[in-house]
Design a protein that fits this description.
The structure is a single chain. By secondary structure, this protein is mainly alpha-helical. It has one domain. It contains 5 helices and no strands.
């Protein structure tokens, strides 16, 4: 029997640079307090574009975003 090997989405997100603390917050059934976090914290979210658009190279991304 052949076993299909897949990578769990959490491991893919970690490999892409998603912070572990964010994944832990999202695992909470009540969810993170997004409004408070948004109002009080600043962050570099460049990793998010790479996660959403993984095939986009750095130079293409610069061209696409101006």
């Amino acid at each position: 029997m052949t076993q299909l090997l897949t990578t769990h989405p959490v491991m893919t997100a970690l490999a892409a640079g998603v912070p572990l603390s964010l994944l832990a917050d999202l695992a909470n059934p009540a969810g993170p307090d997004s409004r408070r976090i948004h109002d009080t914290e600043t962050a570099d979210l460049s990793w998010l574009q790479d996660l959403v658009f993984p095939a986009t190279s750095g130079s293409a991304r610069l061209h696409a975003t101006g």
